[in-house]
From TrEMBL:
InterPro entries: YkvI-like (IPR038728). The chain crosses the membrane at residues 7-24, 36-61, 81-106, 118-136, 143-163, 183-206, 218-241, 261-288, 300-323, 329-348. Keywords: Membrane, Transmembrane, Transmembrane helix. This is Putative membrane protein YkvI. The lineage of its organism: Bacteria, Pseudomonadati, Pseudomonadota, Alphaproteobacteria, Hyphomicrobiales.
Length: 359
């Protein structure tokens, strides 16, 4: 299985990147899986299988070429000209993700404490920009501790949701069909969900794989990351379906289920979600700024402040609306990266993959 500590590190980093505000709150999973009813659970199984494969493939590619950036791997698997498009896609999705995280901060504050959305979004923007500009590693490590806390809360809330539901299957199917949808049907929903998430996860998987000493570690790190993400997905999708009759119009369904169980559990869940929002926002805003400007310079700091202000302005569109529009849009574009990753992995296996000079 390779170096066990390294395997855990790769798996944890992948899960930490994917589990942002949309995942942790349940809003993404509600739109792409729960809203389709029981068949949405089958959709989540398709997504899990794809996550496991893609995480394994991208980690392997990074390890093979000891890559310190996603750029050379993207150009190798996509080709020189398509590589330009995919590189730009990854870069600007980082910015779009920052917009969604900031909106998520506003929705969290409003649902948990009744604070106007504007102030929650301002708080996330200011904290994110400060952390990125200061590059305080201890703070980022501390925020990262929210991932295991969130996993624990998901397990607790899921068990309670399953044991406490009273509605019958037909009523739950009917209730699920009224929830907002991020795709036209359950198969497309499952594919889109993987597609836009792998755009966010690809740079981190490639870099983490590149730091691995051997291929087995990179492969198993990717596989374990996909499995852990899949288990969290199944628990959230299943528990939301079990309580679909009370989730209409709720921006953060998992927070509602936690608060219904106990106000204290709701606050702990809220803290975990806030940690994941900040974790993802810091990661993606740093990635976006670092792709365009040299980290540590005054230009980088000024550019980060400007990007933060623009992201805040974009967040005013609203969390639910952004999840339902931004993610599907990038998801359709992300199919290119998914196909290139499959072809690139096959070429790696056959020994025909070569790095090419990036444009």
């Amino acid at each position: 299985m390779g170096n066990f500590k390294e395997v855990i590190r790769i798996a944890g980093a992948f899960v930490g990147v994917i589990v942002g505000a949309g995942f942790a709150s349940g809003q993404e999973l509600m739109q792409f899986f729960t809203s389709f009813g029981l068949i949405g659970l089958a959709g989540s199984m398709i997504s899990i299988a794809l996550f496991i494969f893609l995480a394994m493939a991208l980690s392997s590619l990074g390890q093979q070429y000891t890559s310190s950036s996603h750029k050379p791997i993207v150009y190798a698997i996509c080709g020189k000209y398509l590589g330009i498009f995919v590189d730009a896609l990854i870069t600007f999705f980082m910015f779009a993700l920052a917009v969604v995280m900031i909106a998520g901060g506003g929705a969290l504050g409003e649902q948990l404490f009744g604070i106007p959305k504007l102030w929650g979004s301002v708080a996330v923007t200011v904290l994110t920009v400060l952390i990125v500009c200061m590059n305080v590693r201890q703070v980022i490590t501390f925020i990262g501790a929210a991932t295991p806390l969130l996993a624990l809360m998901v397990i607790i809330v899921s068990v309670v949701a399953f044991s406490g539901h009273e509605a019958d299957l037909h009523a739950l199917e009917a209730a699920a069909s009224t929830l907002p949808r991020g795709a036209g049907n359950w198969v497309i929903g499952a594919l889109l969900y993987v597609s836009y998430n792998i755009i966010a996860g690809a740079p981190f998987l490639i870099i983490m794989g590149g730091q691995s000493l051997d291929r087995k570690t990179a492969v198993w790190g990717g596989v374990l990351g996909g499995v852990l993400l899949g288990l969290l997905m199944l628990m959230i999708v299943g528990s939301m379906f079990a309580r679909a009759d009370i989730l209409a119009g709720v921006p953060m369904p998992m927070l509602l289920l936690a608060t219904q169980f106990s106000p204290f559990v709701g606050i702990v869940m809220g803290v975990a979600i806030f940690g994941m929002i900040l974790n993802t926002a810091v990661g993606v805003l740093y990635s976006f700024s670092a792709r365009l400007l040299e980290p540590g310079t005054m230009k980088f700091r000024l550019g980060t402040v400007a990007a933060g202000i623009l992201a805040f302005a974009g967040s005013l569109a609203g969390f639910v609306q952004l999840v339902g529009t931004v993610f599907p849009f990038f998801g359709y574009l992300g199919f290119v990266l998914m196909i290139c990753t499959l072809v690139g992995w096959l070429r790696l296996r056959s020994g025909t993959l070569r790095l090419i000079e990036a444009a």
